[in-house]
Amino acid sequence: MKLRLGIFDSGIGGFTVLKSIQERHSSFRSIYLADTQRVPFGTKQPSEIRQIALEISKWLCRQNINAVVVACNTTNSVALDVVKNNVEVPVFDLIGSTSELIHESRIGILATPSTVASKAYSKEILSSKPFSFVLEEGCPEFVPMIERGQINSSEVRGAIVNHLEPLIKENVEAIVLGCSHFPLLKPIFKELMPSNIRLIDPSLNLAKKLDTLITPSVNEVDLARKPIDIHFCVTSDPSQFSDKASHWLGIRPEVEVISLRSHSCVF
């Protein structure tokens, strides 16, 4: 029996995490939950993010999963403890997967305002590399633009240039894409940023950490032939989500609408 992963995000950002996992592993099943009714998470107050994390965790507990993948950096930065305290399976996160990918001493972080305010990336990086310089830049516009499909618009390009500027001025050597939505803009980032700055996607190391549960595929044939065994759930707009999955994942799945709202409170 294949292991079943519970993957969650506010929307389609988790597709980047799912794809990283699929590129390394062929033998797993998954349930993917997008809380599309409340996207984006990154501009919400910590108390609301923690409440959402509680509701998602309780729902995932009922889905017969073997591990949880927190494919949302904002939840990761503000409410990882909520998830870990409310599920009884291993939890894999993005921020905790970052340090091993960094070899540079001057690092920029692009993330949502809530993630930046938490300083979670700075704390994680400095805990293992205490002499590093870390500059975090909040980007509130990216997630809404990506969810609306404004991937190559002049507005997106202008926002990217504006948010790259302070990092480039500080001579960063690497930039971490600290929101799972942001790798969807990776080609534009690479086009607009200096070629000597390395772009880091934490999902690559998260996928590697899953080796403790899932044996990685040893050849490209395994990966090419793997069946897609993913059940998609959303809290609103299933047809729109299916369209986005078709664009980003190359599949048009049936999407189940579920309710997360509960009267439970997180403390």
Automatic annotation (TrEMBL):
Known EC number: 5.1.1.3
Coiled coil segments of this chain: none
Pfam families documented for this protein: Asp_Glu_race
Source taxon at top rank: Bacteria
Record InterPro entries: Asp/Glu/hydantoin_racemase, Asp/Glu_race, Glu_race
Keyword Isomerase: yes
Any one GO BP annotation for this protein: regulation of cell shape
GO MF terms, alphabetically ordered: glutamate racemase activity
SUPFAM superfamilies: Aspartate/glutamate racemase
Catalytic reactions of this protein: L-glutamate = D-glutamate
Class of the enzyme per the UniProt entry, highest EC level: isomerase
Keywords, ordered alphabetically: Cell shape, Cell wall biogenesis/degradation, Isomerase, Peptidoglycan synthesis
Pathway stated in the Swiss-Prot or TrEMBL entry: Cell wall biogenesis; peptidoglycan biosynthesis
Residue intervals passing through the bilayer: none
Active-site residues from the entry: 72, 179
Protein residues bound to substrate: 9-10, 41-42, 73-74
UniProt xrefs under HAMAP family: Glu_racemase
Function: Provides the (R)-glutamate required for cell wall biosynthesis.
UniProt xrefs under NCBIfam families: glut_race
Family: Belongs to the aspartate/glutamate racemases family.
Protein's name in the database: Glutamate racemase
Organism: Prochlorococcus marinus (strain SARG / CCMP1375 / SS120)
Source lineage: Bacteria, Bacillati, Cyanobacteriota, Cyanophyceae, Synechococcales
